[in-house]
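tl;dr need the bound structure. longer version: we got a ligand (adenosine-5'-triphosphate) that a collaborator sent over and nobodys looked at where it sits. i said id run it. heres the input, straight from their email, havent touched it
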Amino acid sequence: MSLHLSDVRLTYPDGDSTVTALDGVSVEVDAGDMLAVIGPSGSGKSSLLAVAATLQRPDSGAVRVAGQDTAGLSGKQLSRLRLEEIGIVFQQPNLISSLTTAEQLLVTQHMRGRSPRQHRERVRELLATVGLDGKQHRKPHQLSGGERQRVNIARALTGKPSVLLVDEPTAALDHDRGTRIVELLAEVTREFRLATIMVTHDTEYLGQVDRIAAMRDGALSHDTAAAPV
Ligand SMILES: Nc1ncnc2c1ncn2[C@@H]1O[C@H](COP(=O)(O)OP(=O)(O)OP(=O)(O)O)[C@@H](O)[C@H]1O
């Protein structure tokens, strides 16, 4: 399973004119691969994630998620595809303050219409995978910033997605915590055979990813295997 964008173009209205956010972007990310996308502010990184997440329909070009062409799908079918196949990690964890760590994950299963009871074991395993063993009963204020980001990642993985989209995961973290979060993302990408795209400003963490692409003015100008560190 993979994520495939082909010649994607996206414009936004801008007064009497338009702004081109994505200008013929093509990229393929295979299962088990992690691609980092870097680039200056306004270069189109968030737009790329929004299109890959099927939250934004492109003006033209194709978006295939887990082998499925998204062009002909209705809004309802896209929502279902997102729930089943796509995990999204936003910059801010946006955890619900009254819920425990385990409940943050169970509530997403409830939204999928699945009984939380059947998923307690998976939630326990996922929390262990992200290094939160023994912290399932803690509420967000009882966790560190890095731990909250780990809950965010575990929550994105609860529905067993094949695609993981990550927006600036290290923005609020110091160097050590940031390094461990990117390590964790690389680990879960391999372990769960995810097709992962991580948008980041922080070039210091790029040694841990498989491929790096640079966005400039809506174009993906470079896509290469990451240099070994
Ligand atoms: N909703 C919108 N309406 C109009 N223009 C937009 C909208 N969203 C983004 N843009 C424009 O599209 C271009 C790409 O923006 P985008 O947010 O994708 O870049 P970015 O690389 O993610 O920037 P940043 O790192 O600052 O988040 C920019 O010129 C931006 O001003």
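gonna send this back to them w/ a short note. The longest strand covers residues 17-30.
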